[in-house]
Specification:
ten-stranded antiparallel β-sheet; seven-stranded antiparallel β-sheet; 23 strands
Length: 319
């Protein structure tokens, strides 16, 4: 059975705790919103908590764009953005309280709906979070409504900021397309493909978060299998999402992107690019699960990765 309670959580202020006998989800209410904590009961948070506010963006471009000094904080956890990314357009500070309501879905789960203030860029975000009564499974529905008064083109972009010290696995397309290509791997200008944190094989790629490492790394792709997993703190965080094979996606066709620096790793899905008239909406849904795990694997050896994926049935657990 899921309980939903308002709590004070560390220095993130008023939060909503969703809890059952297996897992706990904590969502910020005074800022964000962020899913700031997600963990199996008795385990540590799999997500980043930036209590010291180490990662932020501000500067003259913010002052010019917003008309006053503003600061955007990552805070950590899971958030909703829109793609394509730009500065400072994407970094709208979300430091204000969030409205929420508990939804009675009548199913084997409990849900909450969280709605922050409209952004300076004319977007109304909404996140609906559902926790299963009897397991760690979470469904997160991400909605963006165009309230700008103009026609805009965007893709919803859920971003999970994972805690330091883990390693992520993501699949490569193995579909036989005959004479046509079957996969895209897109790199950013700051990404060194020889970075030891990164490995790319024929079936899988991996990205390791190394605390205090120098430099950034990011890769995007057509993740047609629709999953990625982050392994840390005795848990596997499994994220599932859909891809429309005929859809148009940002960044040369990416529906999945991942980024790391010396502080955190981001596991990101992307929805289709949609042109929205004023008042129209778009959405993307993710499904999560936490799996207890005491095993390790060689993140630069595809046979070792494949053995780990098969042992925990990561390709087929959700969906």
């Amino acid at each position: 059975m899921v309980t939903i309670t308002e709590i004070q959580y560390k220095n993130f202020g008023r939060c909503l705790e969703m809890k059952n006998g297996t897992a706990t989800v904590v969502v910020t209410l005074d800022i964000g919103p962020r899913i700031i904590s997600y963990h199996l009961n008795g385990r540590d948070n799999i997500l980043l908590e930036d209590e010291q506010r180490v990662f932020f963006e501000r500067g003259e471009s913010f002052k010019e764009y917003f008309g006053e000094d503003k600061t955007w904080y990552i805070y950590g956890g899971h958030r909703l953005w829109s793609s394509p990314e730009s500065m400072p357009h994407s970094y709208v500070p979300d430091n204000d309280p969030v409205e929420y309501s508990v939804l009675d879905s009548g199913s084997n789960e409990k849900s909450v709906s969280l709605t922050p203030l409209p952004t300076r860029t004319g977007q109304q975000h909404n996140i609906i979070i559902s926790l299963d009564n009897d397991s760690s499974r979470v469904k997160v529905v991400h909605n963006i409504k165009n309230v700008s008064g103009a026609i805009v083109t965007l893709a919803p972009w859920p971003m999970t900021v994972c805690s330091a010290g883990g390693v992520e696995i993501f699949p490569q397309s193995t579909k036989d397309n005959g004479l046509l290509s079957n996969r895209r791997n897109v790199f950013w200008s700051y990404s060194d493909i020889n970075d030891p944190r990164f490995f790319l094989g024929n079936k899988y790629g991996t990205l390791k978060q190394v605390p205090d490492s120098e430099g950034k790394f990011k890769i995007g792709m057509n993740n047609e299998d629709g999953w990625a997993a982050y392994i840390n703190k005795g848990q596997i965080f499994l994220k599932n999402f859909d891809m429309n094979i005929d859809g148009e996606y940002p960044d040369f066709g990416c529906n999945f992107e991942t980024f790391t620096n010396g502080i955190f790793l981001e596991c990101e899905s992307l929805g289709e690019l949609k042109t929205l008239k004023n008042g129209q909406s778009t959405s993307i849904t993710e499904e999560w699960e936490l799996i207890e795990c005491s095993d390790s694997f060689d993140h630069r050896n595809e046979d070792s990765i494949d053995e780990f994926v098969k042992k925990y049935d990561l390709r087929n657990r959700i969906g």
